[in-house]
Design brief:
Blueprint: H1 18-28, H2 31-36, E1 41-42, E2 53-54, H3 75-81, H4 84-104, E3 111-116, H5 136-151, E4 161-167, E5 180-181, H6 185-201, E6 207-210, E7 214-215, E8 218-219, H7 225-228, E9 239-240, H8 246-252, H9 260-270, H10 283-294, H11 300-316, H12 336-348, E10 351-355, E11 367-370, H13 392-400, E12 405-408, E13 412-417, E14 423-425, E15 458-460, E16 466-470, E17 476-479, E18 485-488, E19 494-498, E20 510-515, E21 518-523, E22 529-533, E23 536-540, E24 546-553, H14 555-563, E25 568-574, H15 594-606, E26 610-615, E27 629-633, H16 640-649, H17 683-686, E28 704-714, E29 717-726, E30 732-742, E31 753-762, E32 767-775, E33 781-783, E34 788-790, E35 794-801, E36 807-815, H18 825-828, E37 830-831, E38 837-839, E39 841-845, E40 852-856, E41 862-870, E42 875-884, E43 886-892, E44 897-903, E45 914-922, E46 925-933, E47 936-944
Helix pairs in contact: 1-11, 4-5, 4-12, 5-6, 8-9, 9-10, 12-16, 13-16, 14-15
Length: 945
């Protein structure tokens, strides 16, 4: 007899379309198997030969959490390059390293949770480092480039599958799991959705991750926008992955649902396809889904829809076609090309803020290098482990020669004296060299524990001299002479054990609290005070030790000692990405930490040729007017020091540009939870003050001229061209920026808005003509009177230049569009959230599943204005759809109250609406003013008669 080969099921047939293969596979999976796929860690299905799969590999600026990898500049630094080609190449390098690392460690996943496209609306947001820009256009351009690099160029198979974070309107760490972002329709469509939309429409996005927060009173994990907007932008199946622990938050913290089964079912029906909760243990989430199904809250079709989306990503990643997957054999890891790319990115991210001619440094310059970050190469929460490392000091030693560089860190050198007269002392260790934190890789680095193999601190007659760094807001670190930071492990003992501050809960930070004639030393991570016990120094709830701080040397004294004889002083200041501004913690102020201000003042007093290099994850409000020069760069990854040295030396002309506005002081900022960028005049789009440095700002070592601006409308686009010439004597990059503004808008529009940009390299004397095609959609705004985008006809100014304020060319174009009209309130009435202006109002959820309503903010009277309402020949009655308790008063054009309704206190819930009426006499066109009093929700206002 002849043996027949086993039948190949259709889902294994690479010649069939993915959709048919997924249909076949779904038909073979049992309900329990499909349900198991809905957790982040999907199990194997051995009978079908389907391996385990997990969503979520962090790779924001290099492969994170899984051990050594190439580390590129922070995301905000990549945004500062304004270079989409560079960022695409970085995405390619990162995705290749993901593939190479997965070949030797199957914990490495191919579903990438990056990039972050949240707009950098507020510079005090703790996660500023993770975004690209405050501008939607620049953010989407950089994100699109990164996702295309991550995806790869093959028409069928993706190298990795990027997921955008964090949907939606997420810019605060304070109360992030319970706070609601109040986002009016214009801000939603013109600002927050845009970065997501343009990136998704570019075609290299596999999905999104909803954020922890609520938007308009409704958690993002049950947002109708996932269906109404996200899935309408593409024909591809998009995988929506929950953020970690967010499914449980719906009940445990937000109290939005009574049971986890209700919450899980609502999330799944809203569009969440993969649940990240309870770590690697899928039992709880799978159990909730099964119970929700048994209770009739879900159908098998609901489950199939989510599983289909996950399988679509897995098929695109080549999982079911290993022999056809062109990315399966990728071995590119820490290659010379990747190292060169990391250096190129770090160089291109550096922004020259001001320069009186001291830069570039002349050959033979004697340098004094000072500052807390001068000999640091800092990593953030989403960094990989460094294979290569370059600090500013190391880069300058290499470039200028160690004999021409003097260094003083500027730390305060202290000893801590106990009440018994002894001093804290670090015992010599016989332990071997420790690896950097995270070198071994971890699916959840929050679970990495501190070291216990080193001896705890003790006390003796002389003690150890520690480097004390005050990071501001009362937060300090203490470092032993061997470079290790004092840290507290799970056993509560204090050891000099950490290579850097870090971890989900940082264990290396302390506070000095005045007490009696000294200070208590509180460990911030545990909240406990340091005490001296017979078996060593530890933290405890009682017997807190009182310390006297003995200062051996002030940091500014060390700075003065090395700076006075130098030709130029370089002060390297900035932040530690794990302290005072990071995930879970917003900043309190724009100011530079006081410790670092002291060092800067001391350097400037000793030597007027002082240059400030800010290395930080966010902007500062720092006065640079009396400095010779100032630069800013985000934490630049493994090649940061080399890059800075090359820019200072003039080997590279700086051409980074600020991706967000730098404000002069805290008074320029709105409230952190104020998401109304229009009403509060936020970002360069609307800010009417004078910034410290404007959006798009950055200087060069050469000069450029702009000319020959032309424009014309053709085929639904505005075609714009202009020329740039390098008029200096240095080859350099210029970032040409094209903005527009409505000349005579009928309602508030941006002061100017980026519509295109390009980074170009020009040799001395070289000229290049740049051409842009700007879709007319870029000139539209969201018309709340019609619930759609509209192009207002009229004149628009085109502005070309080197920043949002450095405009070199301008012209005006006349665009055809759709004229506006008064609100047809007789036909449509007024939706509560469709206001033109507001004060003291928050937008809330009309129901748990859809719709918006408005309410007065707690403790305030809400004011709403709806412009140009057309009452026709007249109305005689107004109706208001309301819930809760309180009153609504209506007036026209700001006059006297013409109608009012009141809802008395009752046992009804916030979603139990009633419609109340009142008489009114009105005709013609008027502005409607509404005043809300009390915890009442207003959903709709209608007119009749």
């Amino acid at each position: 007899m002849t043996a027949h080969p086993p039948h190949t099921p259709p889902f294994r047939d690479p010649h069939l379309p993915f959709a048919k293969r997924i249909d076949d596979l779904l038909s073979r999976l049992t309900l329990d198997e499909k349900t198991g796929f809905l957790h982040q860690f999907a199990p194997t299905v051995e009978r079908l030969g389907i391996p385990a799969f997990r969503t979520g590999q962090e790779a924001l600026h290099g492969v994170a959490w899984m051990g050594p990898a190439t580390v590129f500049p922070q995301a905000v630094g990549l945004g500062a390059t304004w270079n989409t080609d560079l960022v695409r190449r970085i995405g390619e390098a990162v995705s290749k390293e993901v593939r190479a690392m997965r070949a030797r460690d199957d914990r490495v996943g191919l579903n990438i949770w990056a990039p972050t496209v949240n707009l950098l609306r507020h510079p005090l947001w703790g996660r500023n480092e993770e975004g690209y820009s405050e501008d939607p256009k620049l953010t989407s351009a950089i994100a699109t480039a990164y996702t295309h690099g991550l995806r790869g160029d093959h028409p069928t198979y993706w190298r990795t599958a990027p997921v955008l974070k964090h949907w939606l309107a997420h810019n605060n760490e304070t109360d992030r799991a319970t706070s609601s972002s109040s986002v009016r329709p214009r801000v939603l469509h013109e600002y927050d959705l845009r970065a997501f939309r343009e990136t998704v429409e570019a075609g290299a996005v596999a999905g999104v991750m909803p954020a922890y927060n609520l938007v308009n009173g409704r958690p993002n994990h049950v947002s109708p926008y996932l269906r109404e907007h996200l899935r309408a932008w593409t024909d591809e199946e998009l995988l929506v992955c929950s953020d970690a622990g967010a499914p449980s938050n719906l009940v445990d913290h937000e109290h939005y649902f009574d049971t986890h089964e209700e919450a899980t079912a609502a999330s799944l029906r809203a569009g969440v396809d993969s649940f990240t909760d309870h770590g690697t243990d899928s039992a709880q989430m799978v159990g909730r889904i099964r119970k929700a199904y048994e209770q009739g809250l879900l159908t098998e079709a609901d489950i199939d829809t989510a599983v289909r989306r996950q399988l679509s990503v897995r098929f695109r990643l080549g999982e079911f076609d290993p022999h056809d997957d062109p990315h399966a054999g990728v071995e590119d890891f820490d290659t010379p090309a990747h190292r060169a790319l990391a250096q190129e990115a770090a160089e291109q991210a550096i922004v020259l803020l001001r320069n009186d001619g001291v830069l570039p440094l002349a050959p033979g310059t004697r340098l004094a290098v000072v500052g807390l970050l001068a000999d640091e190469c800092k990593l953030d929460w989403y960094s990989g482990t460094l294979i290569h490392r370059s600090t500013p000091l190391e880069g300058l030693y290499e470039r200028f020669g160690a004999e021409r560089v003097e260094f003083a860190e500027g730390v305060d050198r202290v000893r801590l004296k106990t009440s018994a007269g002894t001093f804290l002392h670090v015992l010599a260790s016989e332990a071997g060299e420790d690896e950097a934190r995270g070198a071994e890789g971890a699916l959840d680095p929050a679970l990495l524990a501190g070291r216990t193999d080193l001896p705890p601190l003790t006390t003796d007659a002389t003690g150890t001299e520690f480097a004390l760094i005050d990071w501001d807001e009362g937060v300090l670190t203490l470092r032993a002479p061997d470079g290790r930071y004092l840290s507290v492990a799970e056993d509560g003992y204090l050891r000099a054990s950490a290579d850097q501050p870090g971890g989900w809960v940082v264990q290396e930070t302390f506070r000095l609290e005045p007490h009696a004639n000294g200070h208590l030393l509180r460990h911030i991570g545990t909240g406990r005070h340091v005490t001296v016990a017979a078996d060593g120094v530890k933290v405890a709830d009682e017997n807190a030790e009182t310390f006297e701080l003995i200062i051996a040397e002030r940091g500014e004294d060390a700075v003065t000692r090395v700076t006075s004889e130098a030709d130029v002083v370089l002060v390297v200041a900035g932040n530690d990405p794990h302290i005072n501004g990071r995930e879970t913690e917003d900043r309190a102020s724009l100011r530079l930490p006081v410790h670092q201000e002291r060092l800067l003042r001391a350097a400037r007093a000793a030597n007027p040729r002082t240059v400030l290099a800010l290395v930080s994850a966010y902007p500062y409000a720092v006065d640079t007017s009396d400095l010779a020069a100032a630069l800013w760069t985000a934490h630049g990854g493994q090649a940061a020091g080399t890059a800075l040295a090359r820019v200072l030396a003039g080997d590279v002309s700086p051409a980074g540009r600020l991706p967000q506005t730098w404000y002069e002081n805290d008074a320029d900022l709105p409230g952190l939870l104020d998401y109304d960028v229009i009403g509060s005049r936020q970002t360069y789009l609307y800010f009417e003050g004078t910034p410290l440095f404007p959006f798009g700002h950055g200087l060069s070592y050469t000069s450029f001229s702009y000319g020959d601006l032309t424009s014309r409308v053709a085929d639904g686009t505005l075609q714009v061209s202009f020329a740039i010439t390098n008029t200096g004597d240095v080859t350099a990059d210029e970032v040409a920026q094209l903005y527009t503004r409505a000349v005579d808008p009928a309602l508030p529009r941006p002061r100017r808005e980026l519509v295109a940009h390009r980074r170009v390299t020009l040799a001395p004397g070289a000229r290049e003509e740049l051409s842009f095609e700007v879709p007319l959609r870029a000139f539209e705004f969201w018309d709340v009177t019609q619930g759609r985008s509209r192009l207002e006809p009229g004149p628009y100014e085109l502005l070309a230049g080197a920043s949002s304020e450095d405009i070199r060319l301008r012209t005006t174009v006349l665009l055809d569009g759709e004229p506006g009209a008064p609100r047809p309130v007789l036909q449509r009435g007024l939706e509560g959230a469709d206001f033109d202006e507001q004060s003291g109002v928050e937008i809330v959820d009309r129901t748990r599943t859809a719709g918006d309503a408005v309410t007065a903010a707690e403790g305030r009277t809400g004011e709403l204005v709806y412009r140009d309402c057309d009452f026709g020949d007249g109305v005689s009655e107004v109706t208001m759809t309301v819930s809760g308790e309180g009153a609504v008063e209506l007036s026209l054009d700001g006059g006297t109250v013409l109608a009012a309704v009141r809802v008395e206190e009752s046992d009804s819930g916030p979603y139990d609406y009633t419609t109340l009426g009142a008489g009114i006499v009105a005709e013609g066109v008027h502005d409607v003013h509404l005043r809300l009093r009390g915890p009442l929700r207003l959903a709709h206002v209608g007119f009749s008669g």
